[in-house]
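Supplementary Note 3. Input sequence used for the single-chain structure prediction.
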Amino acid sequence: MTWIEMNTETVLNSAVEASFKNNGIVIFKHSTRCSISAVSKSRLSVKWNFKEELPIYYLDLIQHRALSNLIAEKFNVQHESPQLLLIKNGKCIYHASHLSISVKHLHQALEIKT
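The predicted structure, written as discrete structure tokens, is reproduced below.
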């Protein structure tokens, strides 16, 4: 698993462009001050089995709250932390927060049998 840091609007725009390829892209919004966020990030890291066909972007929302708010607005989702968004063809087709974040649910959203 390779986390791609999302720290500018330019990176966000590049990620949205990349969402038109393969299965799309994932954005994980993470709070470094939240234990549930740490658990969710760890679970993703341990269970991740997508290799390179599904890039995952990491947003530290404590450092980049304005960018986090922009993502919520752009994809019409309520801001939560932690939060995982699956972006395909420029649209959010799945999102989850807190302990609902799982690789299994992501596979289901992509209609991939695990």
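The longest strand covers residues 91-97. Residues 3-109 form a domain with the Glutaredoxin fold (CATH 3.40.30.10).
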